Amino acid sequence: GGTSNYTGYLGIDDNAVHLGHNSSTRGLHFQTDETTRMAISSGGNVGIGTSSPTSPLHVENTGATTWITVESTDAQDTGLKIKHNTQEWLQLVGATSKKFYLKDQTNALWPFTIEANSPSNAIYVDPTGVGIMKSNPAYPLDVQGTANIVAGHLLMDEDYKISWNTATNDYAFI
Hints:
Elements: E1 8-12, E2 17-21, E3 28-32, E4 35-40, E5 46-48, E6 57-59, E7 78-84, E8 87-93, E9 100-104, E10 109-114, E11 123-125, E12 130-132, E13 141-143, E14 147-149, E15 154-156, E16 162-165, E17 170-173
Parallel strand pairs: 5-6, 12-13
Antiparallel strand pairs: 1-2, 3-4, 4-5, 7-8, 8-9, 9-10, 11-12, 14-15, 16-17
């Protein structure tokens, strides 16, 4: 074989264990059974299940469902933080409430909450519309069962089709 000008190192100091090499174009691969399980590209992207990560964190799995698990075993909320410049969102599960939330952390708003044990298809979205307690909505808003519309105090159920003209407050039961 030939010789290489590249060197690798393993070191330890008071702050960390250092593992690396002197190449700006080569990545670092962690292997088991001669297969790369995790890789760090020369640009700093981390890949789990791929030797060619294309984003800061790239998880790839073949032949099975892929999950990323974020778990807390104590009384703390658990979730993901998504941030772009000054806008920050949280996707979390409340430790005591067991509710799933989407939170606008920047503006301290909670626009979306799902209670534990909510029924299947409580909210169902497809290209046709939004189904409430109904999969495969046939209309832009398709509600299965009784709906209480607070603005206007109008009660609709599956036995009535209601027309409501908000400009004249005319109601027609069709």
